[in-house]
Design a protein that fits this description.
There is one protein chain. The chain has 225 residues and is of the alpha/beta class. The chain folds into 2 domains: 2-119, Rossmann fold (3-Layer(aba) Sandwich); 126-223, Winged helix-like DNA-binding domain superfamily/Winged helix DNA-binding domain (Arc Repressor Mutant, subunit A), CATH 1.10.10.10. It contains 8 helices and 12 strands. It has helices spanning 10-22, 33-42, 59-69, 84-92, 105-119, 153-164, 172-179, 186-205, and strands at residues 2-6, 26-30, 47-51, 74-79, 97-100, 126-129, 132-135, 140-143, 146-147, 170-171, 213-216, 220-223. The strands form 3 sheets. Strands 2-1-3-4-5 form a 5-stranded parallel β-sheet, sandwiched between helices. A 4-stranded antiparallel β-sheet has the order 6-7-8-9, with no helix packed on it. Helix 2 packs parallel to helix 3 (59-69) and helix 7 crosses helix 8. The two termini are 20 Å apart. The chain binds calcium ion. The site of calcium ion (CA) has 5 residues, from loops.
């Protein structure tokens, strides 16, 4: 998942970035409203962490832009403001939740996970796919209790992202942007994602055929559930 951190406190922004990278999120950071507006206009994020008090704009105005250009992004407001009004306005404008500063990184992560589960209607963190069991908290794939350890972090991220968007075809550029954090040229993209999917199938098929992982010709990939 890719995350845009909008936070003008450089040290906090850096801390968030380091923590979230460690939690397998792909991060980009904006320290002001102008930079955030530019990024929101051209990129699609899964998550936006939004500080309301920015030097050059009101975070609530930025939230309106997010709802226009990144309507699918989950939005968590980070705010030092004590006014209940701003929080309520933020939620009214479509933010998914807010976290008052100061907060612990673990609380942030657990809020982000809760928002993700809610957003994608994921009732359980244990997912059964054919003969495989995917544990979304542990980030593991098992077959009859045996961990499929050959699966790399990025391969797991691909599977988990397709599970969140289950029954929906995701294109190669979409997978690239959300899992690698950048859209590069089409030829490179398709090849890159295809190689990863091929490796996933090869590694899983040692145990059982992952028939749920479908290639949608000319479009991309989807997980049927
Ligand atoms: Ca601030």
């Amino acid at each position: 998942m890719n995350v845009l951190i909008v936070e003008d406190e450089v040290s906090l922004a850096r801390e968030l970035e380091i923590f979230l990278n460690g939690a397998n999120y792909i991060c980009e950071t904006s320290h002001n409203g102008k930079s955030a507006s530019e990024k929101i206009a051209v990129n699609l994020y899964d998550f936006i962490l939004l500080d309301l008090g920015l030097p050059d704009c009101d975070g609530l105005d930025l939230l309106k832009k997010i709802k226009t250009h990144n309507a699918e992004a989950a939005c968590l407001i980070l705010t030092a403001r004590t006014e209940v009004n701003d929080r309520i306005k933020g939620l009214d404008l479509g933010a998914d939740d807010y976290l008052p500063k100061p907060f612990s990184m673990l609380e942030l992560q657990s809020r982000m996970q809760a928002i993700t589960r809610r957003k994608f209607g994921l009732k359980h963190t244990i997912i059964n796919l054919g003969e495989f069991v995917i544990d979304m908290n542990e980030r593991s794939i098992t077959h009859n209790g045996n961990t499929v350890s050959a699966i790399t972090k990025k391969e797991y991220d691909l599977i988990a992202y397709l599970i969140l968007h289950k029954n929906r075809t995701l294109t190669r550029p979409q997978l690239s942007e959300h899992i690698w954090g950048s859209v590069v040229n089409d030829d490179y993209d398709s090849n890159y994602i295809d190689v990863h999917i091929k490796n996933i199938r090869k590694k899983l098929s040692v145990y059982a055929q992952p028939e749920w992982l479908e290639t949608v010709r000319g479009l991309g990939y989807k997980i049927k559930m």
